[in-house]
Structures are given as structure tokens and as C-alpha cells.
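Q: What would this chain look like folded?
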Amino acid sequence: MLSRLVLQTSGARFLKTGFSANDGYKNSPLSTSCRQTRAHSESHGCYAPYMARAQVISTFCQPVGRTVWDSAAWVTYYESNAKNLGVIPWERGGELSTEERASIAASVQDFQLGESSEGLHLQRCAKEWAEKTGDRDYPEAIRLFTKEEQRHASNLADFLKLNGIGLISKSWTDALFRRVRRMAGLELSIRVLLCAEIVAQVYYDALRDATNSSVLRAICDQILKDEAEHVRFQCERLAIFARKHGAFARLLRNCFQYSLMTAVLPIVWVRHRRAYLAGGYHARRFAKETWLAFRRGMAIADPSSYE
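A: My prediction, written as C-alpha cells:
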């Protein structure tokens, strides 16, 4: 019997079932069970296409309660997801009005650039982690995660070109995020990346409603589906890290995460407020929804949730 995953992309509830796992290392029970079920999962298509804005329903392996997936499970998910993408109606062409273009063009250019990172530093960190722990599938999971981000960038680039909007090659916010990540090790890189992923969840929900473009709406639908799993992927990794830390070290790391998010939100709002407002997100709603998404992520990153 296959399990069902229901994710609310703009709500507060989610039901998650999946593999049982320890720390995701090569000798964990999950590593063995995942590899045994992987061929079966791939042959049956373990992730269903996007079905609605507010709800994603997918099937993935056997239900055993709330659990951490190991790296092999995430490789299976990413490979399956790449085969089950939503349809983007490119034939509709450029549909933006002059007003819509003015509201979102600069913002989408900025996010497109941010999504286009090659993730080389993160992949190096993942390889170091694999060598240290024996978690040999983690570098591949990170590579496939990065590939999904680059697919988002490619779709956004095609949308911009379709509407006669050029791409940008640099942005001070993107440069700042990349510089911070390059200075960090694996855990800190993920924490910085997590802030961007959580912001993206709310941003693409707003962007979806900011125009009447059916192409942009389809792109945002796919990205929202992907980002829900990206947040889970990164947060579960933080839960694995946290199991090795004491209570005080966990507290310090959580304080850092909250502080980082607090610093990021005003920057995002000031830089992208026209797109948010066009999508029906005033400042209060933007802050409320982003903090709700953040708290959901931190609940997934809490190792006590799996003990």
C-alpha cells in the first residue's frame, strides 16, 4: 500500500508519511529499505503531477508515520518528480499587460537570477559530508535539488523572453546571499538557503495572482509544488544535524535562524513589494504568511518531531 502526502502550499496544515530513518547514514535501516523499494517506486511513478494550487497529492513508498527520509529516498523523489511536471501553455505567448509588466518585471528578473545558481559550493559541502559520514547518496540528492532550481530559472527566463523582458546578470541581493553561503559550511549554507526557500513559497503564491498570464500561473504552480518539498528536504537535513547537538547548541542555531529570517524579510518586502501588492499581499499579509511558512519549516527541522 502506497502512502499519500498532502501539502498545503498556502495553508498551515500538512500530513506527511514516508520512510522510517535514523540519521540518513549508510548503515541506517532506511538506507537498506529505501534501496529495496526504489526500483518499485520508480516503475510506478512515485510522485503525481501537480493537481491544484492549494493541495499536492503524491504517492511515495510505505506509510510508517512521521519520519525523516534518507538521501536515497530524496534521490528517488527528485528523479520521479522530473518525470511528472505540469504542463506550461507556452503557446499562449506573451500575455502581460503594460501595467502587469511594470508590477512584476524587475522582481521576476531578480528571482530568476537567484534560481539560476549552479550550487557548486553546496555540492562540495555535500561531498565532504558524504566522505565523513558514508551518506553516499547525499551529493546526488543535492545535485538533483540544484537541477530543479535551475529548471525554475529556465522557465522564468523563457517567460521573461516571451514577454520581451531581458534577463539580468547581477543583483546585490543575489550577490549577498551567494557570498554568505560561500563563506559557510554545509549546515550554515542550508540555513541561509532555507530562508530563501521559505520566502519563495509565499512569493510565488503572490506572483501567481499578480497577472492574468496563464503561462506564469502554470510556472508558479509547478514551483510551489517543488518548493514545498525543497523546504522539507532542507529542514529534515537540519533535523539530522540537530541530533548531534546538545540543547544549548540547538537553541543558538534556532536563534540564528530566526534572526536571519528577521533580517531578510524587510529586504524582500522593500525590493519586491510591487509584485506582492499586485498579487494581493499587503505588508501585514506578507509578514504573516511568511512567518507561518517559517514556523512550519522549523517544526520539520525539530528532531524531537521524529523521536
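The chain has ten helices and three strands.
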